[in-house]
Amino acid sequence: MLIATILSGGAGTRLWPVSREAHPKPFMKLPDGQSLLQKTYLRSAGLTGLGEILTVTNQGLYFGTKEDYRQVRPAGASFRESFLLEPFGRNTAPAIVLAALKIAAEHGLQATMLVLPADHIINQQSEFAEAVEKAQRWAKEGYLVTFGVVPTAPETGFGYIERGNALGDGTAREVVRFVEKPSSALAQEYLASGRYLWNAGMFCFTVGAFLDQLKAHAPELLEASSRCWERTARVADAGRDSATIDAESFRQVPDISIDYALMEKSPAIAVVPATFDWDDVGSWNSVGKLAEMDTTGNVIVGDAVLVDTENSYIQSDGRVVAAVGVRNLIVIDTPDALLVADRHHAQEVKQAVQELKRRGHETVRLHKTVARPWGTYTVLEEGERFKIKRIAVKPGASLSMQMHHHRSEHWVVVSGTAKVTNNEREYLVRTNESTYISAGHRHRLENPGITDLVIIEVQSGEYLGEDDIVRFDDIYGRA
Fold first, then answer.
1. Which of 8, 24, 444, 450 could be a cystine partner for 118, CB 3.0 to 4.6 Å?
2. Domain count, the chain
3. Do 134 and 186 belong to one domain?
4. The overall pTM is greater than 0.85
């Protein structure tokens, strides 16, 4: 059985302000309307012999991931979807090792894992599938197979793999070494030599071979991960599609990448050279390549007016952007944050995010519009002792039974019909009607209709943080 294991983590700080901790890079919608996560899912779904797609992600992204998958799942698809949920971010080694232990427990040591980052773009499905077939053949021979993309330019933003002698029929090569992101001069040298491939961060191996290599070359990682998996499996709900990793033992697993932990140490590494078009979409310059460019080198996504402007990427979410007499700029406008950067400094956006994080700025974590399993909420306005939200609840969905200590809420129904529980009362509130929820009252908002329920919520009180919530009952398991 082939099990595609999608790693969906990381904040994608170089793509701020669209990518944020609660809505990271894999969820970014590209100009064609699909997210990077959806593209990875569909790329996996198109593989021959696929039995399961296992996604390793943060537990706070579980419902958003399921919704992304639901929107694009092929009709009649027979593969299973499952999830391994991290309580907090670590690195690639803990994620991959725990996924391998889960697969071993459920499918045995002969199962083949195909490890895929959730935030890459590969445009040629047939070439990708061909490379995976080659990798599976060498995985069955006991190799841990990585994918190396034939470079087309001296990129300094990618890691490299130096390939060695051909193996067998030449469809795979020995790996001489892994190389970190090089300087411009070294990248030119690597490209000219023809011996180096871009490290795509994708792997293919049987679970048994992988665990054997861990035991030989990274025993501490394997032991800590095994203890964590034992505790995780013990409390996992049977029959559910998800398992939440035990937080306490997860902290004891080394925070390290799989390259450092194992791939650079194991002698059983092979690389399959791949010719498909690949990009890790690591900066706004990479995103700009995905949209149509005008005759002066500009790319516009959204509403913009450009006058005497060249070689710039302009993206706007709602407002019109006017650029006059500028060159080589990146302008990303969102409802609550604006990025202006020189295109030659696109990699340094993460430094601005680090400073915002140091200041405790909310734009590092959340957008104005936040997805929830029941729908979305958008913060329209906030100030001293008040906050105004637009809340949209999907048909048949409901918020948790909850209570707030410090705030009261006034709900005005804009469209649809709301079913409201307010302490012991249960009643309907229709379009153009309103209701009041006092601080300390247990309450729930439900949508009994077949169209979206939209309300305006006015909060007032001494503290309006999202953490002032006590959940008593929740259909999404958050109580």
1. 8
2. 3
3. yes
4. yes
